[in-house]
Amino acid sequence: MPNPSEAIDVDPTPHQQAAACIPNRILRLPAVMAATGLRTTTIYMRMRDGSFPKAVSLGGKSVGWRAREIDAWCASRMSVSAQ
């Protein structure tokens, strides 16, 4: 049985592994929704009010989000909810 005071190693999720391996990785909307738990309307509403990372244009009507910005946003939300 592990000592409760010892840190427990947690394997990174596939999203975290991919983001760590590929610098400046771009996530499309389904991946952002899966990572954040937010739906499309909420993502775009929070982008408008400045509380969510802005999408970057990929050309035409395609957009994506920088994986590191989404990871940072998720981490900031976890630290807020832990307080």
From TrEMBL:
Transmembrane segments: none annotated. InterPro entries: AlpA (IPR010260), Prophage_regulatory_activator (IPR052931). Pfam families: Phage_AlpA. This is Transcriptional regulator, AlpA family.
